[in-house]
Structure formats: C-alpha cells, structure tokens
Automatic annotation (TrEMBL), chains A, B:
It is found in: Membrane. Signal peptide: none annotated. GO terms for molecular function: monoatomic ion channel activity. The keyword Transmembrane helix applies. One of its GO terms (cellular component) is membrane. The lineage of its organism: Eukaryota, Metazoa, Chordata, Craniata, Vertebrata. The chain crosses the membrane at residues 74-93, 99-119, 140-159, 201-220, 240-257, 269-297, 419-437, 522-547, 621-647. SUPFAM superfamilies: Voltage-gated potassium channels. Pfam families: Ion_trans. Keywords: Membrane, Transmembrane, Transmembrane helix. This is Ion transport domain-containing protein. It comes from the Eukaryota. It is a multi-pass membrane protein.
Length: 761, 761
C-alpha cells in the first residue's frame, strides 16, 4: 500500500532531494494513499525540470502550502463536519425544543459555529488565489449565509429582550453550510443534477397539472350537483379548488378509495371516471416523471464521469509530453526517467515492486515505456500489492505431534469444510424458527441453552483450527462478546439483540448462492451513494421541518394514553373531534419539535395517509411543495440510481470490463481477486505483508510471491465502474480537448466514439 | 394505397394469369393493404417459376386455401372476439350476478360459445398441416379448456337438479380463450415476457422475503413484550405471522403510519426501525423489482423485434436469390422481372407509381435493381402515395366575384391564421375558468350564451373559408352536433358534457408547443400498446374476480344510505362494527358480483387502504398473490413500457432514424410528412386521390404531383421504431442465420453488430 508512513530515502543528488521536498509539499494526495493523476503530472514537471505551475489553484509559497495542508488535514475536516452538524442540530434545542436549552446557550453555540465557518472560509481564502476564490459561488453563498444568520440572531435577540416574539427565519439557511463546504462534493453534484433535470420535469409537471385541472372540471360537472356527501358527512366535490386538491391527493393514491366511495355508492358507472384518472395520472404521469428523472440522471451521471475520465487521460498525456523522448518513430519515456518519476510520486514502493510495475509497463523489455502504457501509470500505482507467506498455528509450534496427528487433521479439515459453515447456518435458522414460533414455552428457553452451547463449541473449534491472528478479526471478537454477554447477563433483551445480529449471518448463505450475486452486488454497491441521498434528504427535511414548525407548531398536542387533560382524545384540538386523525391516534404526528417534524416528513414521503396527516393543517401548498420536491424529484432520483446500479451490475456480470492493466496482471499470473481472499482456505495461508522485500530489488518478482491484489468487483461503486467503461473507450490520440473544453462538456455534445449508444438505452 | 379493391388486369400470357390467380389465392395479406415480405417471397417464387412451398404452414389445395381465407376473414375474427367476450361476460349474469339470468340461459350461452370455439378450432385444423396443428400448445390448451368447461358445466347442472350446490371452478379457465386464439398475439407475447422474467423476479422476491422475515423477527423481539395496543385496542406485534403480514402491507405503504404509531407513542426511537424497514424494503427492494422487470422487458422486447427484423431481411434475400441474374460482378434483378414481381404482389399500383418505385430502386437507371435496393422493396411498397390537386370552394364556383373580393379574402386569411385558432382556444379557456369559478351566479348562465354564439360564429366562418369536403371531418360533425345539442336540449348535463369535450381542444394548444412534443408523442405512442395491457389486466382480473367471488361472496352487504336493515352500518356483518372498513363506508367494496369484484381489484391495484379492504376477508394469501401478480409484475411491466417508450421517443427526437428509402424519397423531393398534412394551410390545397394517373405511365412522375406520404413520426409505435433501428443495423451480407436459428434466437446470444450496446443501458 502506498501510504506515506515510511520516510523516503533519496540516494540521489541534492537537486533531486530538493525537488522531492518541493514536490512533497505541493502534491494533492499527501493525506491519502492514492496516487492522483494531478500528482503524477506535478511529479513529471519536477522530473523534467519544467516550470510547471498551471492548474494549481492555490498559492505555492511554502507558507501557503503549509496552510493548504493544514486546511486539508483530516482533523480540520472532521471539525468542520462536527460544527455543521452541531449547527443543524441546534434546532433540537431551540424553541420548539426536544431538549430545551436557554436562548443564550443556543445563540452562543450558533455564534461559535458561525465563527468556525468564517474561520474555515478565511483559511480557504488564504490558500487560494484571489480571483479563484471570489469567482466561486460557494464562498459567496457561505458568506451571505453567515451574515444572514448573524443579522437574524441579533434582531431576534433584541426583540426578545423587549418581549416581542419574532420568527427565526434564518434557520432555513443552515443547510447551506452542509451543501457548500468543499467537502460535500457529492451532495453538490446531486443538487446540480436536480437543477439540470428541473426544466424537463417542469414540462411534464405542466402537462400533468393541465390533466389534473381538466379532470377536476369534469368531476365538478359530474358530481357537483348530486348533493353527495363524504363518509364524514361533508359536501362532496362542490368546490373546484377542493376537487383539485382531492384529485392531487388521489394521484399519490393516499385517499383511494375514500375519495371514490360517495360516487361509487351513487352509481357504479362513476368508477370509470376514477379508473381513467388513476391510469392517466397515477400510472402514466408518475411513470413519466420517473422516465424524465431517470433519463436526465443517466445523462448527467455519464457526463460527469466522462469529464473525469477525460481529465485523467489529459493529465496523463501532459505528463507524458513533459517526459517524452524520441525513440525510433515514436515518442517514449525512458526507463531512468520513469523510475525517477515513480520514486518521486510513490516513494514508499519497494524496488521489487517498482521492477514489477516496469515489467508490466515495458512489456517487451525494450528499456522504455510507450504512451499507451504510460497513461495507465496512475491506475497501476493504485493497485495494492501483497506478498504471500505461510504462517503456522501456535499449537503446531508448541505441540506439533498432537496438532499434526490424523484425528486432529481430520477435525481441522471438517471445520474448514464448507459444510461446517452450512451446518451452523442451519442451526441459526432452526434457532430463528424456534423463537419465532413461540417463546413462552419452557422448551424454548431450554433449547436456547442448547443453541448457546453449540455456539461456544463453534468458537472453540475455530480457535483450534485457524491461525489466531487471522481469526481475531471483528467476527471473532463479535462471536466472543456476544457469547459472553449472553452468559453473563441472561436478560432477554441482550439475548435478543445478540441473537438478531447472529441471524444476520444468514445473509452469508444467501450471498454464497450464485443466482443472488447480481442483486447482492447491487445492494452492496449502492451503500456509499446512499450517504449522498442521506445528505440530500437531510437538507430538504431540515428546510421543510423548520418551515413546518413555524407554521404548525402547537396545533396538535400529544397526551400519554391515560391522560386526563381536556381534549386528550382530540389531540388537544377540539376541531379534531371524530376526525380520522384523532381516531387513528395520530396525535404524535405533529410539528411541535424538530424530531417530530422529521418523522412526520418521513411519513409524508411514504405518502400514505397524506391527507389525514395534513387535513388538520391549513397550508395545503406546503404539503404539495413537499410532495413535489421529495417524492416526485428526490425519490425518483433515488429509484433512478438503484435502476442504474442494477443495470451496470447486470451488464458487468455478462461482460467483464477490465482495464488493460488488470488483463496484463492476470496474464503474468500475478493477480489475486479480493473475492478469493475472503475464503478461509486461502486466507489461512496468506499474510498481507507490505514492503517485505524492501531492498532486495532486481530479482524476478514472481519468485518472491509478490502478487497484485485487484479490487473486488463487488466493492466498486457505480461511478468507478462507469469511469472504467469510459476510459476504455477514449482513444489514445485524443488530445484535442483542453481542460476548459472538458469542464464545459455538455451532456449532449458529441464526443468521439461515445462508449454507449444512448439511442435505445 | 395497396388495397385489393380494384381487380387486377393482367395483360400477359395465360401462364402469368394462372400464376397470378394461384398467387392471389395463397398470399397472406389478402385482407390487408400491407405488402408482407412473406408475400413478396411467394410472388418471387411464382415469377421465377420455382416450386416454392416452404414456409407455408397451411395446405395449398384450392379448397384449403378458400377455407384459409374464410378463416382469416374479418367477419370471422370479429365473431370470434365477440364470443370470447360473451363467454367472459357470462360472469355478469351467472350467480352471483349483476344482472341475474336463469341458469338455463347462461348455460345455453356458454355451450354456444364453446361450440363456436370448437368450430373455430376445427376450421383452423382443416387449413393447417397436421403436424403443425398438433405441435402447437395453443390448440391443445383450447381443447382442454373446452373439455374442462363442458365437464364442469355438466356436473354442476346435474348436482343442481338434485339441489346440491357446487362450485363452478371451470370459470377461471375462460380467459384461456382470450389468450390462446391466434388473434391475441400481443397478449401472448406479454405473457411470454412475464414467463421469461419470472426466474429473476423469483430471486429478488426470495431475498425480499428473507429481509421481511428478518425484520419481522426483530419486530417481534423489539415490540412483542411491551404490551402495546393498536388504535383499535388490539394487541400489537405479538404473533409472528401477523407481524410478517403487517410488515408486508407496510411495504405497499398501505398501513403507514398506522402500523408505526403504537411504537412511536411508546418511544420516538422506535421509528428508526420503521425508517430502516421502509428504506430497505419499500424503496430499495421495490425499485429492484422494477429494475429486474425493466431489464427483462427491454431484453425480450429487443429480442422479439430483432427476430422480426431478421425474418424480414431473410425473406427478402431469399426472394432476391430466386430472381437474381448475373450482371457483371454482382447478382441483380433485372427490370422486367422486377416489374412482373411488383405487378403480381401489388396489382393495384398505377404504372406511374411503379415507375417511381423503380426510379428509387434503380437509382442510376441501369436497368436492374441490386440486392441492397431489392431488400427494401417491401417497405417501399408499403409507403402511401398521394397526388396533389387543387380543389376550390363551392362559393368560389358559384359567386366567384364576391368570394374573391378583397374583404372576403381578408376574412379567409384571418380565419386561416393561427391566431384565429388561438383566439378560440383562449375563449374556451376563459369559458372553463368561468364555469370552474362559480356556476350559481346568473352572470355565468348569461355568459354561457355569449360563448355559445361565439362557437356558432366559429363554425360559420370555417364553413365559409374551408372547402367543405375537407372540413366535413369528424371535427366539424362534432362541432355541429355539439352546438345543435346545446341549442335544442339546454339541459345542464348535455351542456356540460359538450363543454368538457370542447375543453379537450385545449390539448391542441399544449401539443403545438415544441417543448411538450416528446412527452405528447410518448403519450400518443403508448395508446395502442395500452390495449395489450388492458387484455393482460382483464385476464388477471377475471381469474382473481372469479376466485374472489367464490371465497368472499356475501360476506359484506351494501345497503343504501337510509336503509333500516339490521347492521346496515356494519355492512350487514356484525363483526365489522366499529371497524375502519365500516366507518369509511366501504360496504360497496365487496365480492358480491363480477362488476364489484373488478372495482375492488382495481382498488387493490392502487394499493392504498389495502389492509382495510382485506381486513374483513380471511384469506390473506389471496391478497398477497394478487399483489405479487398485479403490482409487482404487471404494473412494473407497464411502468417499464412507459419508460422505454419515453426513452425511444427521446432518442428519436435527437437522432432521426430514417430508413434508406425515406432518405432517398426526400432526396428526390417527393416526400411529404403526414405532420405537414395536418395543417389546414396545406390540406386545403390537396386531395388524396389514388390511382389518379392510372394508365398514363411512362412520364416523369414528379410532374404529375405524385408524392409519397411518409408515415408521421408520432404515430409510430415503440415496436415499429425499434424494428427500424434494428433493420438499419443488419448487414446486407448476413444470410448466415436460418429461419430456425432466427426463431430460436435467445436474448443473450451474440448477434453480429448488435445495434445498441446493452452494456451501460
């Protein structure tokens, strides 16, 4: 691994040492183990002695570089996130509060947060060039948000002293900090994607509204004069605007079939109207929304990834151009320069590792690296390297005779066999069935002890069989802790939780079945991106929760089950007497504090009972706005994302997308898939020893058991997979696009040999 | 148009005449205006005098051919459909009936239907070769279904005579007739697509069930011992199977947030369990179902269409091979043979039309048609041909001076102007707003008369401006009828309906805006395929309705609002006292007859209030089965279909997919888009006169005003668009695949130069 723990040991002249120090200061990836194309380009500039300062958006004085590294330090980043979330969670403590704190405390905290943001921004301004800093809307946004928050806080504080209540309206700008600090790149990308989708969504929405208004007009004509009544005895379909709203709710299916029943009771034929309405609006238009969102999502995702791939290729080609020398008819990078470059950019690699890389890059041992191999260098440097070594069980060292005896070997073979794992999975399954069936019976608690002893036997057998260091992973610790917990505190609660977590082991059975692989891979791949959607949802929920609290605070009260308060059954609101809301015991669904608001908004996202929840709130526009933003846009983007993840995974299963590097490594027989490493059979003969061969360079790497650990297919994100697909398609000669052109690449612009025809997709 | 109305007039020798007669007898497309590749192949066989009998699955004796044409006669087809739907609608008249008929009447009708089906099948057997007939599972299915129905009917009848009630279980086989008669090709294709999707759906479903069972187990552990109660005072989350069912319903979102409220009331933290459940099961798994269904839908749609395109190409190449002669280095079809062929296959085309076709096929006037042009012949023959001619208004003939005067011309120009249409659209819009606002006010009814007179003025102006024959389309008739109706019966009802249909004219405004075109085209394109989904839904509903009636008939009764019957408020079922079902006045949602069952099933498809509707029915498995079949499979296929339609339309908007023919016609300047024909400006100078130039052949066709009418983009179905895309991609030399290979083409088999990379789609 290319971590920077081990200090570099440059045995070259003072110039190289000086260059190296300067390069180390300027490189981007000082805090990550990754080798970025940007760094390779910078290193190439140092190696070739070119004055290369382009594309460095920060100042290059030693002071500025030190500040820049401080800015990027992980502690600083975590601190920023901490204050962003502190600022957001202030809503929990401000009135209306979940955990009330005095106004002074929350305002001091808020000022503190704002000062931290201001400090972070100032820090950023110090490391960035002036014109770059002031051109960036992100920074302006943050400044405006800080100013607004402070002004609002001051006004509110002053008014409060004179006992005048005003609204803390600036609280809705707080999510801006989450969006606009440079670390939230993914969330900004998601917002950009939404912004790009908006025009097309708008056209569909206008058509949909047109259809809704037309149907409402028809409903007014058909039912308005029949004097029908709803189940609650209210007039049915009399007022045009109410019809529009009722039918809008029907699109969400929330009031089906209630909204239809009075007309249905009057005549069965009227159901035809509602059937037509549901087919056109709920099924066709809602699918169209999904189609538009999905189409745009795919288009912009591909565009962003294409940009990244082009950027990378471009930088690698620039680096090549800096280092190239003529060799026969082509330009190449000679071995000496190539080695200098690799040493500079990845000082921790062993020389044998370097030899191996050269062996892959310079396939035919010609003493130089051609352009095609050179552009893959960044990927090559990012592949993990491990060496294999056999490590023996301690018992085999202490009592070799006993441990090596035939019965012991048999026992170990049994434990290592797949059937052993399956047996224990079956035991867990039986345990699950036992518990699900009935838990009052005394036999069950007796059986519980049987199962517990079986689990302890499993742990002992595994300790006996496997080398402890490999087994002492979290799996083992977990097994041990859970068993100890169960033994010591035999309370039902802990037993249950322990047991449920044990049941999760059953996922492994499912996972081992070939047929489920595509689905499981999709599920695993979407986890990282789920965080982006989490952030997106958080932003939308925060804004709507804060507005909701201002609008609906205190309208509904929750009383515990046996409260004697007046109107306890009507949620403290006499107007709710006999309403479906009170009857369904929905009183806790209110906007009385930040946490409750979040839960109500979650319920509104699920859509059901929408109209019941909102029937007691006057502002229907608020709910329609939330539905449009959350359900029509964000949920559809989420669905699009899952669709795309599945399709990428599915197409990958059929046609392996390998880069040239991976293929070459496989050809040389030095590859090992991470998947394979998961099996105990392989693992217990291996050890991940890095830099084991440091200093022994020059020999054939194969003989040393050095292998490349290729990233498992299943832990690649959709983005990484797509980027790989695009890279394979960019022609090598493609130097035409400049950085500016790449950044301004529009989704529709024709790019030579677009990798996937979007025509029928 | 290539209809067969005008008898052919072969001026050739007796042999050709005899061949022609035999060909006419054997050709497939005798009842349609289309020229099928199959017919072209047959005609080529006759022209080349080859003994060509392959690929004719029916007997070729004159008697058999006559029977075959009778079998395919449109009257026979309509009769078959009539009896299929009569048979299906028998459920309306049988107990439990919507319109009760005596048992004797319905059984006589059913026997009649079955006899008709048997007759149709026998007819088919007579025209088909024996081994082909008996190999076809469709025919076996129909025979078994007839046998089962008759047996069941007999048993039921006999038992009824002895007053023993039994179940008419054979009623669920009735939809088999709808699926299996040869005319329902589309529905069978949809069923095939579902069958192909089932394995993958099953894997996702198993994973989903696994997740559901795990969450249920957790719920049992978390909430089972807290002694919580639901809003109705029932125990909450005690029994494992009930939890599984409740959580299954939560996946459909139908019981959200009710199912959460007791836990939420106990502690807000418990909502996290439900949030996790909804994210994983409702959002991720339901999206996965859509992904799997969509992926399979696309795969199989493309495969079927690829098969069709290959078939067509194959037949055209075989026809070419039958007719080819050597010319220089290549094989060609000489002009004489080509003309013979066209005359045979399309005897109604004028000779000028034939010249034009030859001019397109033999681009460089070389006296022969090469392979590339020949394979496009079928498409070429299917392009409509029209001639342009100016036709004058009757008034211009009667009072030319007055009609041609300056004010008259100005008036006509005004009426023809787009602004005139827009003005009237605006008037309708204002009228709509007037009505929506308030209809009790006297001003409104006064305004109604103003609007009515405006509409009459519109009609008069249009009659004055446009040539009557072109204006007397259904639009004019509709305007007239509606106005007359409004004048004569000034009842509010008719006025309303007339008005609503007038409001539909507003769609035209929307349609004329460029931005809405893709969406509108998608909406128009999906209409034909909607019928297939209608058929599919009908089949599923029929089966479930019949089962539902047997299971739940009479459990719930509906009483009119002021009924004095006991338990009228509880839907005639004391068990429903105080239930949400009775409170929501859902009594009419029952399985008491066929029509009600359909409406209940429709409500279950929409999913909402699912649990309320089914809480009174014991058989939960029935509802889960319906949910899986209807919502998870069919609705998802419907959504997939809309997604695909939108994507095809969208990609088409950007990159025009034209066949070589259309391009050539456009090059020759003889094309006219149907779109353009829609504008009145063009229409009133044109007349669709066919065969106008019959017998004048040999002259330059351009001078005659002969133009090709190219099908409008917007009325193409998704299938047609995709087929066109595939055709463009099949290489001309591709003769490798035999008919059998094409028919057995699997969706995953590699086809040379697959037109759309499915890799990232």
């Amino acid at each position: 691994m290319l971590s920077s723990r081990q200090p570099c040991n440059p045995r070259d002249d003072a110039l190289l040492r000086q260059r190296f120090t300067r390069f180390q200061r300027l490189r981007h990836s000082s805090h990550t183990a990754l080798c970025l194309p940007q760094d390779l380009l910078l290193a190439a500039a140092f190696v070739s002695d070119a004055q290369y300062n382009r594309n460095i958006p920060f100042k290059t004085s030693p002071e500025a570089v030190r500040l820049y590294h401080l800015y990027n330090h992980w502690m600083m980043r975590i601190a920023t996130y901490f204050f962003i979330f502190l600022n957001l969670s202030l809503a929990l403590f401000e009135e209306p509060a979940v955990y009330p704190l005095p106004f002074l405390a929350t305002s001091v905290l808020e000022v503190l947060c704002l000062l931290v943001f201001l400090g972070r921004l100032t820090h950023f301004a110090k490391v960035t060039l002036h014109n770059v800093f002031w051109k960036d809307t992100k920074n302006i946004c943050i400044m405006v948000a800080i100013l607004l928050s402070l002004t609002d806080l001051a006004i509110y504080g002053v008014l409060r002293m004179y006992d005048v209540r005003s609204i803390r309206w600036s609280r809705i700008v707080r999510p801006i900090f989450l969006i606009n600090f440079a670390e939230s790149r993914q969330i900004r990308r998601a917002f950009r994607s939404i912004r790009n989708t908006l025009p097309e969504i708008t056209y569909v929405f206008l058509l949909f509204m047109f259809s809704l208004l037309m149907f409402s007009l028809m409903a007014l004509k058909l039912f308005g004069e029949r004097n029908l009544q709803t189940a609650e005895g209210l007039p049915y379909f009399r007022n045009y605007l109410e019809i529009v709203f009722d039918l809008y709710v029907l699109v969400t299916t929330a009031n089906s079939p209630d909204v239809m029943m009075p007309a249905f009771d009057f005549s069965s034929w009227y159901t035809l109207f509602f059937i037509a309405f549901v087919i056109i609006n709920t099924y066709i238009f809602m699918s169209l929304f999904l189609a538009v969102v999905y189409n745009n999502y795919k288009k912009h995702l591909k565009n962003e990834i294409r940009k990244l791939a082009y950027m990378k290729r471009r930088k690698m080609i620039e680096a090549f151009n800096l280092l190239k020398e003529e060799e026969g008819e082509q330009f190449v990078v000679r071995e000496a320069r190539w080695k200098q470059l690799v040493k500079l950019v990845a000082p921790d690699t062993s020389s044998s590792h370097r030899e191996l890389l050269l062996c892959i890059s310079d396939d035919e041992q010609k003493g130089f690296v051609d352009k095609k191999s050179f552009v893959q260098l960044a990927d090559l440097l990012n592949i993990q390297v491990v060496t294999l070594r056999v490590r023996r069980h301690p018992l085999a060292r202490w009592v070799p005779a006993l441990y090596g005896s035939a019965p012991s070997q048999l026992l170990r073979r049994v434990v290592r066999h797949r059937a052993f794992v399956w047996t224990y999975d079956a035991i867990i399954l039986i345990n699950a069935i036992f518990i699900a069936l009935d838990e009052e019976s005394p036999y069950i608690s007796y059986a519980e002890w049987v199962f517990l002893s079986l689990y302890i036997i499993e742990i002992l057998l595994k300790v006996y069989t496997y080398e402890p260091r490999e087994f002492f992973g979290w799996k083992f610790v977990w097994s041990l802790v859970s068993t100890v917990l169960t033994l010591k505190y035999n309370s039902q609660q802990i037993l249950d939780i322990v047991f449920i977590l044990r049941v999760l082991r059953l996922i492994r059975i499912v996972d081992s079945i070939q047929r489920f692989q595509v689905i499981m891979n999709t599920l695993i791949n979407i986890v990282p991106t789920m965080l982006t959607f989490g952030g997106l949802t958080l932003v939308v929920y925060c804004v709507f929760a804060i507005i909701g609290m201002e609008l609906f605070h205190g309208k509904i009260q929750y009383f515990p089950a046996n409260s004697n308060a007046p109107h306890a059954l009507e949620c403290g609101n006499p107007a709710l007497k006999d309403s479906l809301f009170a009857r369904g015991k929905y009183c806790k669904n209110n906007f009385n504090n930040f946490a409750s608001s979040f839960i109500v908004l979650m319920e509104l996202t699920v859509v059901n009972q929408w109209h019941d929840i909102l029937s007691v709130q006057p502002a229907k526009l608020y709910f329609i706005a939330f539905h449009i933003v959350m359900v029509i846009i964000i949920v559809n983007i989420f669905v699009s994302f899952i669709l795309e993840a599945f399709f990428v995974e599915y197409s990958l299963e059929k046609s392996e997308v390998e880069t040239a590097i991976e293929r070459k490594i496989q050809e040389l027989g030095m590859g090992v898939q991470e998947d394979e490493l998961q099996y105990e059979q392989l693992l217990d003969n291996m050890e991940s020893a890095e830099h084991e061969l440091e200093g022994e360079g020059g020999t054939k790497p194969q003989s040393k058991g050095l292998v490349f650990k290729i990233a498992s297919k299943r832990y690649r994100t959709v983005d990484a997979l797509l980027q790989r697909m695009f890279e394979a398609e960019i022609p090598l000669e493609d130097e035409g696009l400049s950085f500016e052109e790449i950044l301004n690449l529009s989704p529709t612009s024709a790019v030579p040999r677009s990798p996937s025809s979007e025509s029928t997709a």
